[in-house]
């Protein structure tokens, strides 16, 4: 196996380079490349992995050129610079490092709060200009002030903790903050309008989503208390910059501290130059400690995926540990083959996919197995589908996916049963793993049969009558088709029977039609795996 190749296109700590090298991965460190999208598009096709911070914009155009890319690692939290749907559609795992820079970013928000409260940047500039304007700068005390946190997740919670330590009164708006967590943090959970009306300082800590974009809109800002101070160390675009500039000029907003901007790099901005505006160039995560944390973590995660199939902190696929990966691998193959089997037999629109995991497999990462089964199922219709994208593609097509887990009920230690429901029929197929690694089909339409799935197979349904086996063997032999194996099953003597025939050559349409004329054959289908 040739060593995977990773491109680092942003200013990551060199610690990442060392990790990749130590793990036997080839690495190109081009920290300024993220800003050159033409060059990035030109070379991205050479890499299996791309490690980035926020300067690299991984657009669908870049992804279209990323023909070998398997993983994008964001050394940081926000993945809004990656087109996740486009990456998912191409089967590229996108991972981030959700905790490595949270303390540092929370500390930046607190630093911004003090900078605003005491006008430190302006006082510094004035003092160093020799002005000694002692009477110009009159600050406000932080103790006892009401801090309104919008978004109380990892970073917001750390800000809350520090603010409580500073004896502030902390209120938080976050629809996903539980009452218990709020109590634990010592914050009062409130609605947005309540926060806007009460907070003396507001700090934003949500991701950028369609719901949070412009959360501090012109209308929302108008509801704030006169003299409010606003801090944004999350994402530009959460605040309406034009409206904020107007309110700063009118004096309604007493100060604003911004680390992030709608347009980055921000070289011109409506807020620049206004009184008591403090700006930093997206430095929230920029400490030696945080950068080392995220670089090491992203390099470890990407290496684990490229070398061992382990997935952690992916935003578009369930996690799989390095220990689980080898155990899961044969089950992923089984799930994909079961899906493929059912998919090749399904000619009308699928309504529902039901997957039952029984026994040991029920305790594995079934989300990953379901993704594999759905990919296998949709592949006959959508050749390029991959297991990362499959569940979202299925949902887009209105297909309902149902998963059930239960303890072992039959002979098999692990059993996966896939049932597909279409307008006209419901078809079920089940399989297991034997000898630790080998996928086997063990049941089709409720009929027991134990068959390996070779690259070329014939699936035949027939009435259980004497003479069928001899005739099919002869017909295939006469047409130069070598039989690798042949497995049979039936529901009862003289009832419905099935045959799975592993073959070494392709069976053409004419021969398929001829097989269909063998007495008692109901249906014959050539399958590939
Ligand atoms: N300035 C910088 O350098 C950095 C900025 N960030 C930004 O900070 C953001 C937050 O990071 P974390 O706290 O780690 O994320 P997180 O996911 O732990 O927390 C985000 C919180 O926002 C809440 N939220 C989501 N939608 C909301 C809505 N409509 N209204 C109110 N709350 C909502 C969520 O429930 C969650 O609790 C990141 O998404 C990133 O964009 C992160 C690191 C560094
Ligand atoms: O990498 C950086 O400097 C920015 C960090 C950031 O914005 C994030 O982690 O979301």
UniProtKB/TrEMBL annotation:
EC numbers for this chain: 1.1.1.95
Keyword annotations from UniProtKB, A to Z: Amino-acid biosynthesis, NAD, Oxidoreductase, Serine biosynthesis
InterPro entries reported for this sequence: ACT-like_dom_sf, ACT_dom, ASB_dom_sf, D-isomer_2_OHA_DH_cat_dom, D-isomer_DH_CS, D-isomer_DH_CS1, D-isomer_DH_NAD-bd, NAD(P)-bd_dom_sf
Catalytic activity: (2R)-3-phosphoglycerate + NAD(+) = 3-phosphooxypyruvate + NADH + H(+); (R)-2-hydroxyglutarate + NAD(+) = 2-oxoglutarate + NADH + H(+)
One Gene Ontology molecular-function label: phosphoglycerate dehydrogenase activity
Pathway: Amino-acid biosynthesis; L-serine biosynthesis; L-serine from 3-phospho-D-glycerate: step 1/3
Gene3D superfamilies: 3.30.70.260, D-3-phosphoglycerate dehydrogenase, domain 3, NAD(P)-binding Rossmann-like Domain
Domain ACT: residue ranges: 457-529
SUPFAM superfamilies found in the cross-reference section: ACT-like, Formate/glycerate dehydrogenase catalytic domain-like, NAD(P)-binding Rossmann-fold domains, Serine metabolism enzymes domain
GO biological-process terms attached to the record: L-serine biosynthetic process
Family per similarity comment: Belongs to the D-isomer specific 2-hydroxyacid dehydrogenase family.
Function per UniProt: Catalyzes the reversible oxidation of 3-phospho-D-glycerate to 3-phosphonooxypyruvate, the first step of the phosphorylated L-serine biosynthesis pathway. Also catalyzes the reversible oxidation of 2-hydroxyglutarate to 2-oxoglutarate.
PANTHER family in alphabetical order: FORMATE DEHYDROGENASE 1, HYDROXYPYRUVATE REDUCTASE
Name of this chain's protein: D-3-phosphoglycerate dehydrogenase
């Amino acid at each position: 196996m040739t060593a995977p190749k990773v491109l680092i296109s942003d200013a990551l700590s060199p610690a990442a380079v060392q990790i990749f090298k130590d793990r036997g991965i080839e690495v190109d460190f081009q920290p300024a490349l993220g800003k050159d999208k033409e060059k990035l598009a030109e070379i991205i096709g050479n890499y299996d992995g791309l490690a980035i911070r926020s300067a690299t914009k991984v657009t669908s155009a870049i992804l279209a050129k990323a023909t070998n890319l398997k993983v994008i690692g964001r050394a940081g939290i926000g993945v809004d610079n990656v087109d996740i749907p486009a990456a998912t559609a191409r089967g590229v795992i996108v991972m981030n490092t959700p905790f490595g820079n949270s303390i540092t970013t929370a500390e930046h928000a607190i630093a911004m709060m003090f900078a605003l409260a005491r006008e430190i940047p302006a006082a510094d500039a004035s003092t160093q200009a020799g002005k000694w304007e002692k009477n110009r700068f009159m600050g406000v005390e932080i103790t006892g002030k009401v801090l309104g946190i919008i978004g109380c997740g990892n970073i917001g919670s750390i800000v809350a903790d520090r603010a409580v330590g500073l004896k502030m009164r902390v209120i938080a708006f976050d629809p996903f903050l539980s009452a218990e967590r709020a109590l634990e943090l010592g914050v009062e959970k409130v609605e947005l309008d309540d926060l806007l009306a009460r907070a003396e300082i507001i700090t934003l800590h949500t991701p950028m989503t369609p719901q949070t974009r412009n959360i501090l809109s012109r209308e929302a800002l108008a509801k704030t208390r006169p003299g409010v101070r606003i801090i944004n160390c999350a994402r530009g675009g959460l605040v309406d910059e034009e409206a904020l500039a107007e309110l700063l000029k009118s004096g309604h907003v007493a100060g604003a501290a911004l680390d992030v901007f709608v347009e980055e790099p921000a070289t011109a901005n409506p807020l620049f130059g206004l009184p008591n505006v403090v700006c930093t160039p997206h430095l929230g995560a920029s400490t030696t400690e945080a950068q080392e944390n995220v670089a090491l973590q992203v390099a470890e995660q990407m290496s684990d995926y490229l070398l061992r199939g382990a997935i952690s902190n992916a935003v578009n696929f369930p996690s799989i540990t390095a220990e689980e990966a080898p155990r899961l691998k044969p089950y992923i193959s089984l799930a994909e083959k079961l899906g493929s089997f059912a998919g090749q037999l399904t000619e009308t629109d699928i309504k529902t996919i039901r997957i039952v995991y029984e026994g040991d497999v029920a305790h594995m990462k079934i989300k990953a197995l379901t993704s594999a089964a759905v990919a296998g199922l949709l592949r006959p219709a959508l050749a390029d589908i991959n297991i990362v994208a499959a569940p979202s593609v299925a949902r887009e097509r209105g297909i309902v996916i149902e998963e059930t887990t239960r303890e072992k009920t039959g002979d098999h230690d692990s059993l996966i049963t896939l049932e597909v429901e279409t307008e006209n029929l419901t078809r079920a197929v089940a399989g297991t793993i034997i000898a630790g690694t080998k996928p086997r089909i063990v049941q089709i339409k409720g009929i027991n049969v134990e068959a390996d799935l070779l690259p070329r197979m014939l699936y035949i349904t027939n009435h259980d009558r004497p003479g069928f086996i001899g005739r099919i063997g002869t017909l295939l032999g006469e047409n130069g088709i070598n039989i690798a194996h042949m497995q049979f099953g039936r529901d009862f003597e003289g009832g419905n029977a099935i045959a799975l025939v592993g073959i070494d050559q392709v069976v053409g349409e004419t021969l398929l039609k001829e097989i269909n004329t063998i007495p008692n054959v109901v249906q014959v289908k050539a399958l590939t795996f």
